[in-house]
Amino acid sequence: MPRLRATSLVTAALLITIVAGVGVLPALAQLGTVRLGLLTSMTGPAAATGEDQRRAASLAVDEINATGGVMVKEANARLKLELVIGDDQTSREGAVSAVTRLLVQDKVALVFGGLGSAFGMAALPQIREHGVPYIPTPSTPLFTRNQDMGPDPTKSMVFHYQATGLMYGAGIVDFLVREIKPLMSPDRPLRVAWLYQDSPFGAEYVRGYNDRVKEVGAGIETVALERFKVGETDYRPQLTKIKALTPHVLVPMGFRGETVASIQQAVLDVGFDPKKTHIGPVCACADDPLYYKDLGRIGQYTTILSLYSTHAIPKGATFAKWAAYRKSYQEKFGQLPGLLGVSAYDAVHVAAKAIERAGSVDKRKVIEALGKLEMDQMVLPVHGGKIRFDPKYHEVPFVLFVQEMFWDDKLKELRPVIVWPADLAEAKYKQP
User: Fold this and answer.
1) Which of these, 145, 289, 311, 358, is most buried using a 10 Å CB contact count?
2) Both 240 and 375 in a single domain?
3) For residue 117, what pLDDT band results from cuts at 50, 70 and 90?
4) Whole-angstrom Cα distance, residue 38 to residue 110?
């Protein structure tokens, strides 16, 4: 009898184990999808850019699902991706509400995307609390460069997929020193004025700029650092102050709509003369089809610093995937994509690769896989051609370039020419 009882207990234990295992794996298989949460602006001032992210992310999801989805070893099945949208309403409060729904109600396996640094940062505490992997695409380095980040997966689940404001700010200085200063102030410091968004996004661009100015030493004099609030529409008071300081360069730094309005007001209302004051480089986030259309003829000779162009394609193998991506996007949606859409597209592929490498949708395993990830670059250009998140800051080193805008009389729109750096340039910068 004791031996029979022992056998029965072992059998019962095995049955419990099997049932429990069956309960876990079929739950994944029955679900059939891995939910990815796109946190972006579908309403509010940045809605057009948010829609670009939604389209691009859905294109990536469709591509991956067309191949059968993502192989998840723990489920012993290929699972389709499901895109769930969280609308941050172009506000901090909206971001908190949206990410709460993604995490609590929709139970997404991963959160990605976004275009406003302030909105992504507002959502970050909730993401940390739930320990869900996060791939933000706004530019502030504060997503990972803060004292709270560490080896604990509940704090280091953020993997930043965007050139940071520090990278962009440094790039602005390098371009101004090498291309603008020799033309506009060869024998004296280049006088630079900023009009920038009062947010983590704007502040980190300025910090990157200031840090590089200190590194290069003499050559640049910052004469103004004027700020505006997110969504502000009248920049004439700040621009009037700046114009009185006679800068050689005006750097307007905001979202696409803010940038268009500030440049138009600078030239048409305040009277900036592009022959005397270079305007730019503006934010990469402005690089989408509406920017080229809405800015108009007055945008001629302005510049934009970017890592993806709506219209131009730099030479070299690093940019070999651009044409095919544009074609797929245009065939599906009837228009060209912008930079932040590309960021979301890439982020979906990064997420899928990490889940496949993890063999699981367990958040800790996916976080670990992201930390060890090494994959061929997608659309955005990466130094070395491989996507890797550095172990200290979980950032990716992107390739940046500057485009100069020229008016096309036939198209009645601006079109870009790459003018910096020299190894990517199609032509030299042309002073008006």
Assistant:
1) 358
2) no
3) confident
4) 9
